[in-house]
Amino acid sequence: MIVLLGPPGSGKGTQGEKLGQEFGFVRLSTGDMLREAARNGTPLGLKAKEYMDKGALVPNDLIINLMKEKIASLGKGTGVIFDGYPRTVEQADALGEIVNVDLALNLDVKDSELVVRLTKRRSCPKCNAVYHLEYNPPAKPGKCGKCGSDLYQRDDDKEETVLNRLKVYRDNTMPLIDYYEKKGKLLTVEGVGSIDEIFEQVKKAVL
Ligand code: AMP
Questions:
Q1: Which of 69, 102, 105, 160 has the maximal Cβ count within 10 Å?
Q2: Would the CB of 156 count as within 6 Å of ligand 1?
């Protein structure tokens, strides 16, 4: 079981997806799950959207229950990469009660780079693939290269929300770096360079 740590825009989704493919793990992204619930108009999705649009965290009880159910639905022995969960110490404690976290992989990227990455990010609403207008543009402008859907800009990737998300990260999620360090589970990778260069470092950390 691997937990991906790192601020929004540090590459958790991109690297998590590649890790999943390489090692046969399932990537669970709470952000993807919540956005899908919001698109489907479920009560949880609509409630979560109020927080997400502001760049705030969805309350712990909602997210902890969502993940408990999701984890319970996986087959025994399934390897999981957690992307965007836990984001608070309370969530980390709750996760530690139901699974054994082997590694917390921290992707370290400086704030100025994160703002550029997030504001120029484009996402696929259908298969959750992510692109960047400069660093990783889709072959056909505006279209997902994997499933052909129209790409969109997430509401929370607009600049004013991005700045709030970085603050929320510092206040609530950064303490998890210490949390997993104290448990001897932390490895940090510099999340700078091309996607493939970073992935080489990520693989070394995991092996
Ligand atoms: P992400 O796609 O990981 O950037 O998450 C997008 C948004 O979903 C966050 O800004 C939060 O509003 C919400 N969210 C995702 N994961 C969590 C979590 N573990 N705890 C609370 N809120 C979350």
A1: 105
A2: yes
Q: pLDDT, tens digit, for every residue of 84-116? A: 999 999 999 999 999 999 999 999 999 889 999
Cα distances (angstroms) measured from residue 196 to each of 76, 121, 149, 185: 31, 18, 24, 24
CB distance 57 to ligand 1 below 6 Å: yes
Among 49, 57, 163, which is best to mutate for testing ligand 1, by the most ligand atoms less than 8 A from CB?
A: 57
Structure tokens at 179: 């949390």
Atom of ligand 1 nearest to the CA of 32: 2
Please give the model's pTM, rounded to 2 decimal places. Answer: 0.92
d(CA 45, CA 36): 7
* Ordered structural domains, the chain, with CATH: 2-109+172-206 (3.40.50.300)
Q: Which residues are catalytic?
A: 12, 87, 121, 154, 165
